[in-house]
Amino acid sequence: MADDTETQVAAWLTTGDRRHLLELQPPLHFEPAQSVQPMRVILDATRVDQEIDGFGAALTDSAAWVLTSYLTAGAREQLLQELFTPTDGIGLGYLRVPIGASDFALYHYTYDDMPNGQRDPDLRHFSIAHDEAYILPILRRVRAINPHLKIMASPWSPPGWMKRRWLPGNPLYGGRLRRDCYDVYAHYLVAFIRAYMAAGVPIDALTVQNEPGFGSFRYPSMKMDADEQAEFVRQHLGPALARAELATKIVIWDHNWDNPGYPKAVLNNPGAKRFVAGTAFHCYSFPPRPEAQSLVRAAHPDRDIYFTECTGMIGSDFASDLRWMMRYLLIGATRHGARAVLLWNLALDEHGNPHTGAGGQCRGVVSVTARGKLERNVEYYALGHASRFVLPGAYRIAATSTNRQIETVAFHNPDGTTVLIALNDDISLHTFTVYWGGESFCYALEAGAVATFIWQGEPAPALLDMSVVPEPTLEPDVMPMLHGWAAVRQWIDNRLQSLAPLIARRLGWRGLLALVVGGSLLAWLVYRRIRRRPQG
Is the separation of the CB atoms in 133 and 73 below 8 Å? Predict the structure, then answer.
């Protein structure tokens, strides 16, 4: 680095006790590296990995309604500027929108609902008028604030008349796509993309089906096996998008880390793969396994990875959530190839409402009360540590930490800046040295804290031998080195952090209580029956 202005490093800090919340720290400076320290983070800009699209959340029907209904026009504009402005805000650059209703909507709908027993194969009743009330106005405003914003769309369910079901009730809940409706459903998705484009909101990517491995009896959903998804993409959706001359990317899976075999099976079908841009993952697996993304990348390195959903829970601990989200999502998901990291609802009220059919207790990136009071949740700060500094078009570069408790990921921006994000995933303060070519700086990061470092310039020639064991492509999910019972409790807490949203999104806390009580009652009845058996 040639001069003093290029050697300065800006550091932004968030601590688990909230003393610092994405707060700028006193500047640091690179100095010539004189020796090799044992606790070090080594950056290598010559080892380049995936391009980054952005970081963000989902603008569900509920999120858009909360932002529109609970905030004045001035307060809403101020919040949107804060969330999406690349310079003065946290610079969110990616949004996910449901196609029709999800479990976070005021009511359940699609864009072509018909009375029972009626069908609309020509899509004459297709309309996105519902979204013009409050979803599209926010999307258009956000795109004006951040012109680089990308949008991914995900369907929870096709119109009920396109589905076959075995359970009574709302046809949007569960079931599967009728074989004779594969083509009309592809046209339905194309119609949505065209309608949004005409409304001023182009769709960058489309997932085939939200969580195709799960069918709910409480909210819009649909099961779709890997062979069904491959056939739908190969023979219907891919060709329909091509005929419509739409550049929207097709993304498969859009479900949990626990089944990388599903996307590999779809991509193993050459006819389907030629239309597929990548695979999307959610966090609702136990234990959390972001390395599943690398398993798919290893099998199909010519296709991209996206991380598209994870929710925090109301009432959970800020410090634990910060540590978990940084370790597994902002750092873990990107280290395992994700070009975008998206959380669930952008905004909800302080109780996790409104929702219809979801387990509840899900938390938005921000919470807004009916009186317009705003709270920035841990998701806001976790996302901000990446979205504010990592620009669209950045590339991930190698960052190797010799300290297993310091989790890191690094990026090189199109404007020439370099970004390093570091988490101290331990219960005590750690001091480490960051090496950038032939220069270095030292930093002490307290327990559970996150720091983002950013600087301008190219690395000076390295004069010291920084040889380390190369970072593996796959990082097995193993227990970290233990330091007494505190480390054991931390390991357990990491697992419970991933189990909580899984419970909330699938069962709800009432459902969990019913499961526990019912299971206990069943065990007691079995025990009594065994005790009553005649002896001998």
Answer: no
